[in-house]
Every structure is written in C-alpha cells, then in structure tokens.
Amino acid sequence: MSVESIQAGKQLPNIRPEIHNYEARPSKPKQTELWTLLAIVAACFIGFLVVPMILVIIRSFTTANGAGTLENYATILSRPEFTRSIVNSLTVSAASALIAVLLAFLLSYTINCTNVPAGFKKAVALLAQLPMLLPTITYGFAIIYSFGKNGLITQLIGHPLFDIYGFNGLLMGYVIYTLPTCFLLINNSFQFVDKKFIIVSHIMGDKPVTTFLNTVLRPLVGTLAVAFIQSFFLAFTDYGIPTSVGGEYDVLAMTLFNQMLGSIPNFNRGAVIAVFMLIPSIISIILMTVLERFAIRYKQISQVDLPKGRRRDWACGIASVVTLVCVLSVFLVILLIPFVQEWPDHLGFTFSHIANLFTDSQLTQVFVNSLYVAAMTAIFGCLFVYAAGLVTSRSKLPAWARRSVDSISAIINTVPGMVLGIAFLFAFSGSPLQNTFWILIIANIIHYFATPYQMIKDSLTKMNAGWETTAKLMGDNWIKTLVRVVTPNAWPTLLQIFGYYFVNAMVTISAVVFLTGARTQVITTKISALQHIAKFDDVFVLSLLILVVNLVVKGLIALLTRDRSRERAKARAKERAAVRTPQVAASFSTVRPSRQLAAAAATFQLPTDNNRRARGFLTGIASAVCVALLVTFGAVSTSAAAAGGKVVIYTNADEEAVTAFEHALDRNGYKDQYIIQEFGTSELGGKMLAEGKALEADMLTMSSYYVDSAQERNHMFADLTDVHSKLLGDSENSKAPAYRSPTTAQEGAIIINTEALKAAGVPRPTSYADLAKPEYKGLISVPDMEGSSTGWLMVQAIVDAYGTGEKGRQILTDIYRNAGPHLEQSGSGPLKSVRAKEVAIGFGLRHQAVADKKKGLPIDYVDPTEGNYSLTESVAVLDKGRATNPKAQKMAGIIIDKGRRELLQTYPTPLYVGEKAPANASKRSKTFPKPLTVDLLQQHQDFSSECKRIAQGE
Question: Where are the transmembrane segments (predicted)?
C-alpha cells in the first residue's frame, strides 16, 4: 500500500496481519541495495584513494633506484626544521580552526536562532561562503595587496595594522579559508535542530545560558567538533597561503612542497612527510567515533516562531556584520586591481587587462574546460556522497561497514591535494585515464569528499529513523522510498553539496596541477603558470572571473533552496491538516499500528502536487544539464581525437619566449599543427620525473638541469636530429648533451623599486655583498634556492666570488638575515614584493625587471659586480618509439635555428655561433664554471640551508 493511500484517507484492511507478523517475528532486513552501494563506494575508495596512497607510502621506504630503505625517514627526522614545522603547523592550524568555528557558529546562530530580517539572513549566508569562491592561490596576494606596507587598507588607514608575515598572516589566511567550510557544516546542522525545545525551555523558566547550552549547543556538539577537525586539516595541509605570507614561520605543508616541488624534487622524502601528515587522521577517526554518541535524532522538526529578543538580535546582527566586513575586506582589492593600469603605481581606470585575456582563444578553451570539470564533479560528487551517506546514516548495516566510510572520510581530510595529485601520477601514468577530464573529476570528488559527506550524513541522521520501516510496511520498496521520501527531505542539502563541489572544482589547484594535459587545462592551472612568470595582474583578472561564475552558481542554488524551503513548509502544513481529518483518523483507528509506526507515518514528508511538479521541473533541468555536458564532453573528445596529429609542446617558458616559439613555427609552415601547454617549472618538473615516457608531450622546453635529471632517471628523450645551429665553444652550454639544445639563458640581477628605495633613504646597491650590510635589513627579498632554482643564480655568484668559507658564508647569512620574512619560495616572489613596495630591493630574473622598466614602472635593475649568472632552458623531444611524432624533431630545429633571433631581444645572452649580444645585454654575463648537475645543485643547496639556519638563529 503506497503513501498516497494514507493521504487519500483509504482504509487499510490488510495491514494488521503484516504488522502483527513484523512485531511477532522480527527479521533482519537484507538491504541488498545498501550493500550494493557500499560495494560501489568501497571499490571507488580502494581504486582511487587506497591504492594510490599505498604507492606513496611505498615511495617513502624506497630510494630513487627502487631499493628498500629507512634512510628517507632518518634524513627527514634529523632536520631540526622538520620538528619546528610540525609544532608551528599544529599551533596555527588549531588556533585558526578554533576561531573559524566560533565565527561560523555566530553566523549560523544569527541565521537560525534570531529574528533579524529574512533578507539580512540570506545576505549573511551568501557572504559567509564568499571566500570559498576564490582559489587559495590568490589569498596570499590579496593579504599582501590589502594589509601590506602599501596595501589598499593600509593606505586607507594610514599605517600597517600588523605584520602580515609569519603567524599573523597565516592565521588570517587560514581563518578566511576555512570559515566557509565550518559555516556550511554548522548551518546545515542548525536546520535539523528542533527549535520547539527553545520555547519549552523558556516556558519552564530556564536561564538564557541554560536554554542555550541545552537546546542549541548540546545538539550541535558533534557538528562543532567535526567542523573543528575539518578546519584544522584544511589549514594543516594548505601550502598556497604559506607560500606568500608564511615568512620565517615554517609549516609542514611548505616542507612537503619544497621536497615535492622544490629546486630538487624528491618524491621519496616528500612521501615521508606525507606519511607524517596522515598520522593525525588516526586521532580524527577516534574522535569521529566518539562524536557519534552525541548525534541527536528528532522524530519531527517543528517549525515554530522563536521568542523575541531585541538585544540578542541586535548583538548577533552587529557581530555578524563586523565579522563579514573583516573577512571580506581582504578581497576588496581583487575587485579593483583588474580595472587599474598598474597597482600601486598607475591607478588609472582600464579594461585592458580583462579585454586582453578574453581575446585569448586559449583562455576561452580553458574556461570552458573548467566549467565542464566543475559541473561534472558536482553531479557525480553528489551521487557518490549521497550513496556513502545512505550507507552510514540510513541503513542497519554492520557497524564496521558504516565506520569504514567514516574512517575513509577522516583520512581524506589529512591528505594534502598535492600528495593526492602525485599519488594519481604514480598510479595512473600510462593508463587510459591519464590526461583526461575524468581523472580531474575523480581527483576532485575524492579530494573534497569529507565536507559534503559530513553535510549529507548530518542531514540524513537527523531525519526520522523509521521512515524506511514505515514505507516497507505500507508496500513501498526501498528505491521508491528513497526517491519519494528521503531525497525530497535531503534536497536542500544535496543542492548545497552540488554548490560545494562545483565551487571547489573551480578553485582547486593543488591536485589537478599535476594531472592536466594539453587539452584538459583548467583555469587555476593557468593562474599557477601566470604566477610563475610574474603576471600578477592577470592572476587577479582570472580570480575575478572565477568569483563571478561561482557567485552565479551559488545564487542559483540559493534561489532553488529558497523555493524548496517554501514548498516544504506548505507540505508540512497540509500534512498536519490531512492527518487530523476524520477519514485518516478513522483509518489509523482501524489499523491500530504501533506507536513507533504511527509516529513515523505522521512525520513522513508526503509529496504534494506542488512539490511533485517542482521535483519534476528540477529533475528535467538536471537531466538537460547532464545531456548537454555529455554532448560537450563528446565534442571535446572528438576535437581532441581530431587534433591527435598535432605536436603537443609542454613548456615552463615566459610569455615572451612562448610568443617567439609560435612566431618561428608559424612562419615556417607549422601554423595550427601544434598545441602549447604552459606549466610552472615545479609542476612540469614533477610530471617529467613521475610520468617519464608516458608524458603526453611530444616535445618540451624546460630548465636544462631538470631535463638532464629526467633523462638520467627515465631515459625519455631522443637525440635531436634537426638542430643545425652550433653552440658557442667557450661556454658551459657547449657541453650540452645531444638530446637537448638551449633555447634561452635566464640571468639573475638585483631588482630595485626606485620610489621605495628613495623613501627608505638607503644607497643603491651595486653588489651582493652590499645586500649583506645592516642598513638593508628588512628592505630586501630573495628566493630560497631550496624552493626555487632562481635562488641558485645568487648563491652561485656568491660562491664563485667569495667561496664557501667564512667570507662567503657570512655574506649569504647576512643577506638571509636582512631578508627575514621575505625569503621567498618562488622565483617570482621577490619581484612581486618589489612591485608591491613591500621591499625596496630584490633578486630575480633580469629580463622581467627590464620589461617592467620599459613599461614605465618605478622598477630598475643592477648588474652586480660579482656577475650575472644564468640558467638555461632547453628544448628536448620525447622518445616514444613508434609513437614518436615525426614533426617534433623538425619543430625543435625550427625553434632553435629560426626562433633564437627573436628570443635574443628578451634574453640577451648569446648561445650559438654567429649571435651577437643586443644593446640591452648585461655587461657582466658569466656562466657556471662546472657542469650544472643535480649533485652540484645539492651542494649549493646544503650551503644555502646552513646559512639560512644560522640567520634564523638555529
């Protein structure tokens, strides 16, 4: 007998014996559907989480040659900075999680337990989620450009409010980053707290504090603890914010970043740190098990008017406004910089930054790719999370089965996205999933599983536990009950989960940066590439684009949720009226079901004509979207297949170099016969070392020592056959192996901001030794060569000029001491700080300073007396046997033989016979006296690390 028969008031003559039999001889339900869902969920976790992470763990116990060892653990544990980074990570993550939970609770309480205007509540709910609509890679930039020495808010106030580098900057960034997640969890649980008990407590004369503790806080204890755990691990595993504002406050995520993506990638040692980051998951699993005892189920969620309290409403309203203003003020600069000519020097209004990007056909394709990946992640993520939630919250499966899903959720919390991306590289290189959209979608679903799972679990747990039993006794099967009863009640939460997955898929960078290919690049990987080449204005423009898209999606979800809330309220009112009618009352008096069955039947979410039509409308929209996306995917796949004959070129080169490559190829008959995919140096290096010959690229341009390292490890490059230019015989580059040929030489130089230097009242430096003088303390920024090979250029100059003895060590130590928190982990970091006037002096790539000066910025450069040392980037062709694209060799020859003339205008170091230095060439160009090898880099890195430890007082 279906639910409609109750609604229509029909008699139920045959149900009494069934109830009698059920009560007399209870049997254990088979739950075939739920066992099937559990099997699917388990298989997905085993294939896409357990196996890849096992490969990472195995890596932690092996050497580069594959031999088993504990040396990696011994090396990591012996470093004093490792212990310090653990303590720092635990401290700042716990502090930020506590603050984020308190602020999220305040905002959720204001929405759900006060009588502030409805419009105000909607605004709070939307604005609280705003930070998650932006990629975390821009958080550090936003903090610097807002609260730095010349930041927007600093200029409005007149002085810096606090030092943004180190603990303060990390705390601010982490709170902003994790607040939306905490809010979603707590606000979602608030919707399932029965507020009639607040009224009862008031009637009984309880004190306000007692009412608050017993009727509001007590039902949310479990959710608050889970929100704290979620927030803690989000902060604990993030590396984007520390990269910009971490300063000298080392955290574990940055230690992992330096090992995985530093100047010398070491996946094996990085795997050791990843294993240590998994250890807290054991504690979280125990906590999650304990917190299950605090879960409260309500048989019915009453819709009541809250008691009046003007003081409460005003206090919560004002506190919420202050909280949101403080949080969102950081992002105000993102709304301004895309429309400013050059921040902070030329503040004239312009549309050129946006126009330039939107006229780029590559960007259009990247944007479409991002939308597709985000939408498919949201659709399949909702289905996957819903299945997992049903297994744990709406079933009577064995406790071990349900707890296993909880345990997996806790473990996912502790897996950094960077580690997950590397794990997917290890597991799926060479597989059909490699370089497809589906590997990105799967990675996103797994990476962001924990929070949506907790949301749906809370929602399903707080629903009446007897609904399925009641439906079964009325003749409905499990699937019908799921579709007609459980899902309509969970629909608002499912919409929130859709939004959560979509937004995070749009903003994620840490995992997908390793997994994108030439045809599957997404917008955040484009941002990462722009960051590495110091295109910070474009970074803000793309961030604004992501913000607009995510706002539209969140707005649509808010609209659908609002309509759904109205329908649910009407349905509940009709339900209560229907249950009181004489016909239905007579039916129940005839049946005389047990009290539990009667209570469950009374609390059924009975579908009305209105909500059936609404559900049908929404289902139609969802189906249409799915079909459109699948068609789009088919079109993209067909396009990719049609483009199969094109040469895929991977590169870490700057925009000027890529333009020169394109001009050379187009002018020599290869127009539209290639695809260029840009990466940051670290990301491309990681893919080369991990994927080897399975790399999608047919050819690449990359830092020469990286190419050599990849060849030594993977033997992945073929000898070049079509390069006819001869290298100069008096340089280190003349010893280049046959499988690569240098494209550019990137020189280091001292970069200065003339206005900031004048304001500081210090003389213009002329050498690296000058940067060690005490008058420059706090005024310089240099790259840490452990995180960036650009720092190698400065260290090499100091080693050659002053040696590694007392004098050289003292100079480098004093430079690091003067840099303080401005010891950057990326090569473009010092230039970013100099442009923003955070410092007056930096060290970076000479051609970038030349370009800034040419644009009229107050940027100049100094060729130091110790010399301008350079690192080369080279072209190489992948050796794929019979699958090798024959055009790749010819294109490599064109880039060198025909492209070098244009490249010389930007990178003015002659490399080949017949080349002459242009007018903008440095006067002190020098080359490394020894061949550039990983061993030499390691020696200089050890020297640099020793000086850094001394400078930091260790």
Answer: 34-58, 86-111, 123-145, 165-186, 216-236, 270-294, 314-340, 366-389, 410-430, 436-453, 498-519, 539-560, 616-636
